[in-house]
Protein backbone atom coordinates (compact mmCIF):
# COMPACT_ATOMS: atom_id res chain seq x y z
CA UNK A 1 0.00 0.00 0.00
CA UNK A 2 1.18 3.49 -0.75
CA UNK A 3 2.50 5.46 2.17
CA UNK A 4 -0.03 7.67 3.87
CA UNK A 5 0.31 11.38 3.20
CA UNK A 6 1.17 13.93 5.83
CA UNK A 7 -1.43 16.65 5.53
CA UNK A 8 -1.14 19.84 7.58
CA UNK A 9 -3.89 22.37 8.21
CA UNK A 10 -2.78 26.01 8.25
CA UNK A 11 -5.20 28.37 9.97
CA UNK A 12 -4.57 32.09 10.38
CA UNK A 13 -6.17 33.48 13.53
CA UNK A 14 -6.62 37.10 14.49
CA UNK A 15 -8.45 37.63 17.77
CA UNK A 16 -10.32 34.36 17.39
CA UNK A 17 -10.68 33.30 21.05
CA UNK A 18 -14.42 32.91 20.58
CA UNK A 19 -14.21 30.36 17.78
CA UNK A 20 -10.94 28.53 18.44
CA UNK A 21 -12.24 26.05 21.03
CA UNK A 22 -15.00 24.93 18.65
CA UNK A 23 -12.81 25.01 15.53
CA UNK A 24 -10.11 22.92 17.19
CA UNK A 25 -12.68 20.44 18.50
CA UNK A 26 -14.25 19.89 15.09
CA UNK A 27 -10.90 19.71 13.32
CA UNK A 28 -9.61 17.19 15.83
CA UNK A 29 -12.65 14.99 15.23
CA UNK A 30 -12.11 15.25 11.49
CA UNK A 31 -8.41 14.46 11.77
CA UNK A 32 -8.97 11.52 14.09
CA UNK A 33 -11.52 10.17 11.64
CA UNK A 34 -9.15 10.59 8.67
CA UNK A 35 -6.25 9.02 10.55
CA UNK A 36 -8.33 6.06 11.74
CA UNK A 37 -9.62 5.45 8.23
CA UNK A 38 -6.07 5.51 6.89
CA UNK A 39 -6.65 8.53 4.70
CA UNK A 40 -3.80 10.61 6.14
CA UNK A 41 -0.72 9.76 8.16
CA UNK A 42 -0.64 9.84 11.96
CA UNK A 43 1.86 12.66 12.11
CA UNK A 44 -0.41 15.07 10.24
CA UNK A 45 -0.81 18.32 12.15
CA UNK A 46 -3.17 21.22 12.65
CA UNK A 47 -1.21 24.47 12.69
CA UNK A 48 -2.70 27.71 13.97
CA UNK A 49 -0.97 30.95 13.03
CA UNK A 50 -1.55 33.70 15.57
CA UNK A 51 -1.50 36.93 13.60
CA UNK A 52 -0.63 39.24 16.49
CA UNK A 53 -3.90 38.73 18.34
CA UNK A 54 -4.62 40.92 21.33
CA UNK A 55 -6.92 38.43 23.04
CA UNK A 56 -6.32 34.93 24.42
CA UNK A 57 -5.80 33.33 21.01
CA UNK A 58 -2.16 32.37 21.61
CA UNK A 59 -2.96 31.11 25.10
CA UNK A 60 -5.60 28.81 23.62
CA UNK A 61 -3.22 27.57 20.94
CA UNK A 62 -0.49 26.77 23.48
CA UNK A 63 -2.98 24.96 25.70
CA UNK A 64 -4.18 22.90 22.75
CA UNK A 65 -0.59 21.94 21.97
CA UNK A 66 0.03 20.98 25.63
CA UNK A 67 -2.93 18.62 25.59
CA UNK A 68 -2.43 17.12 22.16
CA UNK A 69 0.59 17.60 19.96
CA UNK A 70 -1.47 17.21 16.80
CA UNK A 71 -2.01 20.94 17.38
CA UNK A 72 0.87 23.28 16.63
CA UNK A 73 1.23 27.02 16.62
CA UNK A 74 3.13 29.80 14.91
CA UNK A 75 3.04 33.21 16.53
CA UNK A 76 3.72 36.31 14.48
CA UNK A 77 5.41 39.30 16.08
CA UNK A 78 2.46 41.56 15.34
CA UNK A 79 -0.55 41.74 13.04
CA UNK A 80 0.61 41.14 9.48
CA UNK A 81 -2.78 40.67 7.90
CA UNK A 82 -4.54 37.53 6.72
CA UNK A 83 -2.37 37.02 3.62
CA UNK A 84 0.86 37.49 5.56
CA UNK A 85 -0.24 35.10 8.28
CA UNK A 86 -1.27 32.50 5.73
CA UNK A 87 2.05 32.72 3.90
CA UNK A 88 3.97 32.53 7.17
CA UNK A 89 2.13 29.33 8.02
CA UNK A 90 2.62 27.77 4.60
CA UNK A 91 6.33 28.59 4.54
CA UNK A 92 6.78 27.15 8.02
CA UNK A 93 5.20 23.81 7.14
CA UNK A 94 6.27 23.37 3.52
CA UNK A 95 9.21 21.07 4.24
CA UNK A 96 7.44 19.17 6.97
CA UNK A 97 4.36 17.90 5.15
CA UNK A 98 3.23 16.43 1.84
CA UNK A 99 0.45 18.97 1.44
CA UNK A 100 -1.10 21.81 3.39
CA UNK A 101 -4.72 22.92 3.53
CA UNK A 102 -5.36 26.56 4.36
CA UNK A 103 -8.62 27.45 6.04
CA UNK A 104 -10.14 30.33 8.01
CA UNK A 105 -10.56 29.93 11.74
CA UNK A 106 -14.21 30.93 11.81
CA UNK A 107 -15.73 27.67 10.49
CA UNK A 108 -17.24 29.42 7.46
CA UNK A 109 -15.52 26.86 5.29
CA UNK A 110 -17.06 23.41 5.49
CA UNK A 111 -14.71 21.04 7.32
CA UNK A 112 -16.12 18.04 5.46
CA UNK A 113 -14.53 19.38 2.29
CA UNK A 114 -11.19 18.26 3.70
CA UNK A 115 -12.00 14.66 2.73
CA UNK A 116 -12.47 15.74 -0.87
CA UNK A 117 -9.24 17.73 -0.82
CA UNK A 118 -7.36 14.65 0.35
CA UNK A 119 -9.03 12.48 -2.30
CA UNK A 120 -8.06 14.86 -5.09
CA UNK A 121 -4.52 15.05 -3.71
CA UNK A 122 -4.32 11.26 -3.79
CA UNK A 123 -5.45 11.41 -7.41
CA UNK A 124 -2.40 13.53 -8.15
CA UNK A 125 -3.67 17.09 -7.97
CA UNK A 126 -1.14 19.50 -6.54
CA UNK A 127 -3.54 22.36 -5.97
CA UNK A 128 -7.20 21.90 -5.08
CA UNK A 129 -9.40 24.98 -4.81
CA UNK A 130 -12.40 25.14 -2.53
CA UNK A 131 -15.13 26.96 -4.43
CA UNK A 132 -18.29 28.09 -2.68
CA UNK A 133 -21.41 26.87 -4.37
CA UNK A 134 -23.49 29.93 -3.52
CA UNK A 135 -23.47 33.13 -1.56
CA UNK A 136 -26.91 32.70 -0.05
CA UNK A 137 -25.61 33.21 3.47
CA UNK A 138 -23.76 36.44 2.75
CA UNK A 139 -25.29 39.83 3.37
CA UNK A 140 -26.48 41.57 0.23
CA UNK A 141 -23.62 44.04 0.49
CA UNK A 142 -20.89 41.42 0.85
CA UNK A 143 -22.34 39.36 -1.98
CA UNK A 144 -22.59 42.35 -4.29
CA UNK A 145 -19.12 43.74 -3.59
CA UNK A 146 -17.46 40.33 -3.72
CA UNK A 147 -19.01 39.42 -7.05
CA UNK A 148 -18.23 42.81 -8.53
CA UNK A 149 -14.66 42.31 -7.42
CA UNK A 150 -14.29 38.89 -9.05
CA UNK A 151 -15.86 40.16 -12.27
CA UNK A 152 -13.58 43.20 -12.32
CA UNK A 153 -10.52 41.03 -11.76
CA UNK A 154 -11.50 38.71 -14.60
CA UNK A 155 -12.18 41.71 -16.84
CA UNK A 156 -8.73 43.07 -16.05
CA UNK A 157 -7.23 39.81 -17.19
CA UNK A 158 -6.24 38.44 -13.80
CA UNK A 159 -6.51 34.68 -13.67
CA UNK A 160 -8.53 34.22 -10.52
CA UNK A 161 -10.79 31.37 -9.49
CA UNK A 162 -14.36 32.63 -9.24
CA UNK A 163 -15.82 32.41 -5.74
CA UNK A 164 -12.71 30.86 -4.29
CA UNK A 165 -11.35 32.33 -1.08
CA UNK A 166 -8.24 31.00 0.60
CA UNK A 167 -9.65 27.53 1.34
CA UNK A 168 -7.39 25.26 -0.66
CA UNK A 169 -4.95 22.40 -0.62
CA UNK A 170 -1.43 22.86 -1.96
CA UNK A 171 1.21 20.15 -2.26
CA UNK A 172 4.55 20.92 -0.66
CA UNK A 173 5.98 21.21 -4.16
CA UNK A 174 3.42 23.84 -5.10
CA UNK A 175 4.18 25.76 -1.89
CA UNK A 176 7.86 25.57 -2.72
CA UNK A 177 7.11 27.19 -6.09
CA UNK A 178 4.97 29.78 -4.34
CA UNK A 179 8.00 30.72 -2.25
CA UNK A 180 9.76 31.73 -5.47
CA UNK A 181 7.32 34.59 -5.86
CA UNK A 182 9.13 37.29 -3.94
CA UNK A 183 6.58 40.06 -4.25
CA UNK A 184 5.70 42.00 -1.14
CA UNK A 185 2.24 43.02 -2.35
CA UNK A 186 0.83 39.70 -1.50
CA UNK A 187 -2.36 38.54 -3.16
CA UNK A 188 -2.32 34.79 -2.88
CA UNK A 189 -5.54 34.20 -4.80
CA UNK A 190 -3.90 35.72 -7.84
CA UNK A 191 -0.51 34.08 -7.45
CA UNK A 192 -1.57 30.50 -6.76
CA UNK A 193 -3.11 30.00 -10.24
CA UNK A 194 0.23 31.09 -11.71
CA UNK A 195 1.92 28.11 -10.09
CA UNK A 196 0.31 25.65 -12.48
CA UNK A 197 0.56 21.85 -12.09
CA UNK A 198 -2.45 19.58 -12.05
CA UNK A 199 -5.30 21.36 -10.29
CA UNK A 200 -8.94 20.79 -9.55
CA UNK A 201 -11.78 22.40 -7.67
CA UNK A 202 -14.30 21.13 -5.15
CA UNK A 203 -17.45 23.01 -4.29
CA UNK A 204 -18.83 23.49 -0.82
CA UNK A 205 -21.54 25.41 0.93
CA UNK A 206 -20.15 28.35 2.88
CA UNK A 207 -21.61 28.96 6.32
CA UNK A 208 -21.97 32.00 8.48
CA UNK A 209 -19.21 32.85 10.89
CA UNK A 210 -19.50 30.55 13.90
CA UNK A 211 -18.89 33.33 16.46
CA UNK A 212 -17.15 36.67 16.76
CA UNK A 213 -17.00 39.38 14.14
CA UNK A 214 -15.48 39.54 10.70
CA UNK A 215 -11.85 40.62 10.87
CA UNK A 216 -12.23 42.18 7.44
CA UNK A 217 -13.90 45.55 7.90
CA UNK A 218 -14.79 47.48 4.76
CA UNK A 219 -11.52 49.40 4.88
CA UNK A 220 -9.43 46.22 4.82
CA UNK A 221 -11.68 44.77 2.11
CA UNK A 222 -11.15 47.76 -0.16
CA UNK A 223 -7.40 47.80 0.35
CA UNK A 224 -7.38 44.04 -0.32
CA UNK A 225 -9.25 44.57 -3.60
CA UNK A 226 -7.10 47.50 -4.71
CA UNK A 227 -3.99 45.51 -3.88
CA UNK A 228 -5.29 42.57 -5.88
CA UNK A 229 -5.95 44.70 -8.93
CA UNK A 230 -2.80 46.81 -8.90
CA UNK A 231 -0.57 43.80 -8.20
CA UNK A 232 -1.77 41.90 -11.20
CA UNK A 233 -2.90 44.16 -13.92
CA UNK A 234 -1.48 47.08 -15.84
CA UNK A 235 -4.74 47.45 -17.70
CA UNK A 236 -5.65 50.59 -15.72
CA UNK A 237 -2.54 52.26 -17.18
CA UNK A 238 -3.58 51.18 -20.65
CA UNK A 239 -6.99 52.73 -20.03
CA UNK A 240 -5.35 56.10 -19.37
CA UNK A 241 -3.62 55.71 -22.71
CA UNK A 242 -6.88 54.81 -24.43
CA UNK A 243 -8.65 57.82 -22.96
CA UNK A 244 -5.73 59.96 -24.20
CA UNK A 245 -6.21 58.62 -27.71
CA UNK A 246 -9.95 59.28 -27.62
CA UNK A 247 -9.52 62.84 -26.38
CA UNK A 248 -6.85 63.49 -28.95
CA UNK A 249 -9.21 62.33 -31.69
CA UNK A 250 -11.87 64.63 -30.20
CA UNK A 251 -9.39 67.48 -30.44
CA UNK A 252 -9.00 66.90 -34.15
CA UNK A 253 -12.78 66.88 -34.59
CA UNK A 254 -12.95 70.08 -32.56
CA UNK A 255 -10.22 71.54 -34.77
CA UNK A 256 -12.27 70.92 -37.90
CA UNK A 257 -15.46 72.10 -36.25
CA UNK A 258 -14.02 75.34 -34.90
CA UNK A 259 -12.28 75.98 -38.19
CA UNK A 260 -15.63 75.80 -39.98
CA UNK A 261 -17.27 78.04 -37.37
CA UNK A 262 -14.38 80.45 -37.78
CA UNK A 263 -14.75 80.40 -41.57
CA UNK A 264 -18.42 81.26 -41.21
CA UNK A 265 -17.29 84.16 -39.08
CA UNK A 266 -19.60 83.24 -36.21
CA UNK A 267 -16.99 83.34 -33.45
CA UNK A 268 -15.45 85.70 -30.98
CA UNK A 269 -11.75 86.39 -31.56
CA UNK A 270 -9.54 83.91 -29.74
CA UNK A 271 -12.20 81.26 -29.18
CA UNK A 272 -10.94 78.88 -31.86
CA UNK A 273 -7.34 78.70 -30.69
CA UNK A 274 -8.43 78.42 -27.06
CA UNK A 275 -10.82 75.49 -27.59
CA UNK A 276 -8.44 73.56 -29.81
CA UNK A 277 -5.52 74.01 -27.44
CA UNK A 278 -7.53 72.79 -24.46
CA UNK A 279 -8.52 69.56 -26.23
CA UNK A 280 -5.19 68.95 -27.91
CA UNK A 281 -3.14 69.60 -24.78
CA UNK A 282 -5.39 67.44 -22.64
CA UNK A 283 -5.16 64.60 -25.14
CA UNK A 284 -1.41 64.85 -25.50
CA UNK A 285 -0.95 64.92 -21.75
CA UNK A 286 -2.99 61.78 -21.21
CA UNK A 287 -1.23 60.07 -24.10
CA UNK A 288 2.15 60.84 -22.59
CA UNK A 289 1.03 59.72 -19.16
CA UNK A 290 -0.15 56.46 -20.63
CA UNK A 291 3.16 56.06 -22.46
CA UNK A 292 5.18 56.67 -19.30
CA UNK A 293 2.78 54.29 -17.58
CA UNK A 294 3.69 51.53 -20.05
CA UNK A 295 7.31 51.83 -18.97
CA UNK A 296 6.37 51.94 -15.31
CA UNK A 297 4.32 48.81 -15.91
CA UNK A 298 7.43 47.15 -17.34
CA UNK A 299 9.59 48.25 -14.42
CA UNK A 300 6.90 46.98 -12.10
CA UNK A 301 6.97 43.55 -13.67
CA UNK A 302 10.77 43.45 -13.57
CA UNK A 303 10.86 44.44 -9.93
CA UNK A 304 8.49 41.64 -8.99
CA UNK A 305 10.96 39.17 -10.50
CA UNK A 306 8.39 36.42 -10.84
CA UNK A 307 9.76 33.09 -11.99
CA UNK A 308 9.78 32.93 -15.79
CA UNK A 309 8.87 29.26 -15.86
CA UNK A 310 8.07 26.44 -13.50
CA UNK A 311 9.08 22.91 -14.43
CA UNK A 312 6.74 20.07 -13.61
CA UNK A 313 8.71 17.14 -14.92
CA UNK A 314 11.88 16.38 -16.85
CA UNK A 315 12.58 13.15 -18.72
CA UNK A 316 16.21 13.06 -19.73
N1 LIG B 1 -7.24 37.08 9.85
C1 LIG B 1 -5.89 37.21 10.15
N2 LIG B 1 -5.35 38.46 10.21
C2 LIG B 1 -6.08 39.59 9.96
C3 LIG B 1 -7.46 39.44 9.62
C4 LIG B 1 -8.00 38.17 9.57
O1 LIG B 1 -5.20 36.22 10.39
O2 LIG B 1 -5.53 40.68 10.05
C5 LIG B 1 -7.83 35.72 9.80
C6 LIG B 1 -9.07 35.51 10.64
O3 LIG B 1 -8.73 35.14 11.96
C7 LIG B 1 -9.80 34.42 9.90
C8 LIG B 1 -9.42 34.66 8.45
O4 LIG B 1 -8.26 35.51 8.48
O5 LIG B 1 -9.33 33.13 10.27
C9 LIG B 1 -10.53 35.32 7.65
O6 LIG B 1 -11.03 36.45 8.33
P1 LIG B 1 -12.59 36.73 8.49
O7 LIG B 1 -13.30 35.45 8.68
O8 LIG B 1 -12.76 37.74 9.55
O9 LIG B 1 -12.92 37.37 7.08
P2 LIG B 1 -14.32 37.25 6.28
O10 LIG B 1 -14.68 35.80 6.24
O11 LIG B 1 -15.31 38.05 7.04
O12 LIG B 1 -14.01 37.79 4.92
MG1 LIG C 1 -14.77 34.56 7.75
Unreliable stretches covering 5 or more consecutive residues: none
CA-atom Rg in angstroms: 26 Å
CATH architecture tag of the largest domain: Alpha-Beta Complex
Number of domains: 2
Termini separation comes to 29 Å
Keywords:
316 residues, alpha/beta, Spore Coat Polysaccharide Biosynthesis Protein SpsA, Chain A, 2 domains, 7-stranded mixed β-sheet, 10 helices, 7 strands, binds uridine-5'-diphosphate, binds magnesium ion
Characterization of the model:
The chain has 316 residues and is of the alpha/beta class. The chain has 2 domains: 7-217 and 308-315, Spore Coat Polysaccharide Biosynthesis Protein SpsA, Chain A, CATH 3.90.550.10; 235-304. Helices cover 51% and strands 13% of the residues. It contains 10 helices and 7 strands. The protein has helices spanning 20-36, 57-67, 81-93, 113-122, 140-155, 172-178, 188-195, 218-232, 235-263, 271-304, and strands at residues 7-13, 46-50, 71-75, 99-102, 127-132, 164-171, 199-204. Strands 3-2-1-4-6-5-7 form a 7-stranded mixed sheet, sandwiched between helices. Helix 2 links the parallel strand 2 and strand 3 (71-75). The longest helix is centred in the last third of the chain and has 34 residues, at 271-304. The chain starts with 6 loop residues before the first strand and ends in a 12-residue tail after the last helix. The model has no long low-confidence stretch (mean pLDDT 87). It binds uridine-5'-diphosphate and magnesium ion (MG).
Q: Can I get a quick summary?
A:
This protein has 316 residues and is α/β, with parallel strands linked by helices. The chain is 51% helix and 13% strand.
